[in-house]
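Onboarding guide, step 5: your first structure request.
Type a short instruction followed by the sequence, for example:

Predict the 3D structure of this protein.
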Amino acid sequence: MYDEIMKFKLPFADPDEVHIINPLWDASGGSEWRSMNLYTILSRVCKVSLWTEFKPDPSLTEQFPIRRIKPRKLRFPKTGVFIFVGVYFNIGGWVKWARPRRIIIVFNTLDYEAWNERKRFLAKYCRKPIETVYACREMRQDQNNNDIVEHSPIDIERFSMAVPERISPDGQFIIGRLSRDNLLKHHEGDISFYRKLAAQGIVIKIMGGTCLSPDLRDVENVELLPACALDAVSFMHSINCFYYRTAPEYYEAYGRVVLEAMACGLPVVCENRGGYNEFIEHGVNGFKFDTEKDAYEILMNLKNNPELRMNIGRVARITIEKIYSESYLSRLIEHYRQ
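The system replies with structure tokens like these:
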């Protein structure tokens, strides 16, 4: 198929255009939202396009001008800066007909084998060394290169603080979490943990939790919602506290959903394992735990102390505003435009 392209002269392309490439197939995926928020930020100052080789999520196509890569129609990124967000998807042969000025891989999972394979493949089609953007410091350490760590962009105006204290009509304390609706996003111990919390009258609200239905669908005080059942901001504004841990075999390289919760002024209670932990100062802007016993004590303390919830939430919001300052966003833009 690609040999046919040689019959045609590629149309003019802007050598300074930025192309963001990702499957864009899951509206609840962190890589998808990283791609789209990066698109929004870069659109302020340069020509930028969103591309996918796959069928994108319809809800995303309604919000963003996503372009399908179609080599037969000469529709693919041709020159400029190519940003591949993630290493979990295959890249088609169209790349060999492109002439990128730079290629950047956003490395946001711990699949080093896939990362190295993508670099070897893409290095054939770019004169400059393939650059990497790491999702967190832990992934960057021990790598002898000049690549950078970059925060996943978040629209902190969208994820704004709700009322100072969220109190349901009947005074219930609501713990929530959201993620993709996948068992890897949930710790196996959380089934019994949610039952224990629910027995104390605490409401557990899980968006992206229908995969837990076989064990929790009939448990009083536990509400399981499909991924994207609600707008993420509306969901955050409906809870009092954000709780998060994943399956032991799944490492959350960044965990942007944790920072989105902090942006909404929520106290976060997270397992001490994941890229998000570098932003949480225990007892100051959130909480980290090593054991389930620790998590239970933290959550019960938050349940009984509304003032603590408010104070932690305020500092969490301030932390996010510092992380995503205008000066940081300016540096991010310049990195991709250079």
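Each response can be followed by summary notes, for example: The radius of gyration is 21 Å.
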